[in-house]
Amino acid sequence: MIAAISWIPKGVSRAEPVFAEPPSQEDIEEIISNRVGEEDENEEDDANKKNDEVAHALTVADAIGFELFSSGMGDLYYPSNELDPYIQNKNEDYDSEDLEDMIINPTDSVVVSARTEDDVNFLDVWILEDANTRDMNMYIHHDIIIPEFPLCTAWLDCPLKGGEKGNFLAVGSMGPSIEIWDLDVIDEVEPCVVLGGKEKRKKGKNGKKKSAKFKEDSHTDSVLGLAWNKKYSNTLASASADMRVKIWDVVAGKCTITMDHHSDKVQAVAWNHHAQHILLSGSFDHTVALKDVRTPSHSGYTWSVSADVESLAWDPHTEHSYVVSLEDGTVKSFDVRTAVSNASAEQNATFTLHAHDKSVTSVSYNISAPNLLATGSMDKTVKLWDLSNNQPSCVASKTPEAGAVFSISFSEDNPFLLAIGGSKGKLQLWDTLSDESISRRYEQYNRNQPQSGA
């Protein structure tokens, strides 16, 4: 399945691949020890978790060419091909044609999907060549194996490794930590930054490992939502099943603000596009909350809704409006200027849209065309809505080969290209302008006109 999708802005990826330095034997053994050797206080859960971690350790070991359980020559480790007497053509890991295929051109579009298959978790980095033509070519450039089941992602360009900017993806998962991976590095086996999580377990006097403790200010349950702040590039917001919202300084690697204004799991967070100190959060407690993170102790403002919150999105074309999608298949729009503190009853929405027959898991505004909203649902459909005059009308509908839809996202570089991920685990793309009703209404907003002959 694909649980999350993030588009990468054109031109930010490194043109030529950077291959990770091979880990030393000690590093590999430490990675395996940390992931396999952890014990859980609950013995039954520990057995399941240990089996999962053994499988992941074996997958990582296979990816980097290190045999864990073998006999004979397979037990030997060589830190480089040059030192391995059993490899011929030591300097030909990749021939020139392979390297040419690995180059990312400035005109290429890049999208990352968080995928799980056979209990192994991946970040798939997809390349789209000629995205605005009929000759569009789409393929996986490289993938990154990650240890935990991914639930959400957020791209960020904060320069975590020096320089002016970077190309990183934050991943929230079933675990309590947030991992940040460098998308420009191939064959990496560890994230470059980990926010929160559990401390490494130390052995007690009896030789048994002590119960793991959470790092200071860590989430204590699954991370369900992430949002990067484009104005303050070192700032990341997270939502968790532990009922808390946290603000992180990713450069310092620490939590700066913890907010516990919800009474149930927090599913989604979203920064306002125009006033980027304003944060929305949506929860299973049937509320959406607005907070100014400059004064986090303020009670903020809340809107009551009819069901569990699934996703949130600010309208990029106005400072005051947002939509929230719900587990009952509805989408509601609210104007923040009508906000009240500690709402106890459901407020009047700008509109209420009965969009799908099942949970609306994801919504995405078109950054180019005003009033164009996409919705994706567990009912396996994706719909496009014209929200003009706060009177939504469905202008296109599609049942992609994605299964139950978990994540959708319009590209900013190719505004009418919609990425779709779901239970079938294969990334789908919908060129929405290929639909006559969309083309007729919105072609004027197409910033990327097809080239001649396309």
From TrEMBL:
PROSITE patterns: WD_REPEATS_1, WD_REPEATS_2, WD_REPEATS_REGION. It comes from the Eukaryota. GO terms for cellular component: nucleus. It holds the Pfam family ANAPC4_WD40. Residues 214-273 form the Anaphase-promoting complex subunit 4-like WD40 domain. The keyword Endoplasmic reticulum does not apply. GO terms for biological process: rRNA processing. WD repeats lie at residues 216-258, 353-395. InterPro entries: Apc4-like_WD40_dom (IPR024977), PWP1 (IPR044285), WD40/YVTN_repeat-like_dom_sf (IPR015943), WD40_PAC1 (IPR020472), WD40_repeat_CS (IPR019775), WD40_repeat_dom_sf (IPR036322), WD40_rpt (IPR001680). Keywords: Phosphoprotein, Repeat, WD repeat. PANTHER family: PERIODIC TRYPTOPHAN PROTEIN 1, PERIODIC TRYPTOPHAN PROTEIN 1 HOMOLOG. This is Anaphase-promoting complex subunit 4-like WD40 domain-containing protein. It comes from Trifolium subterraneum.
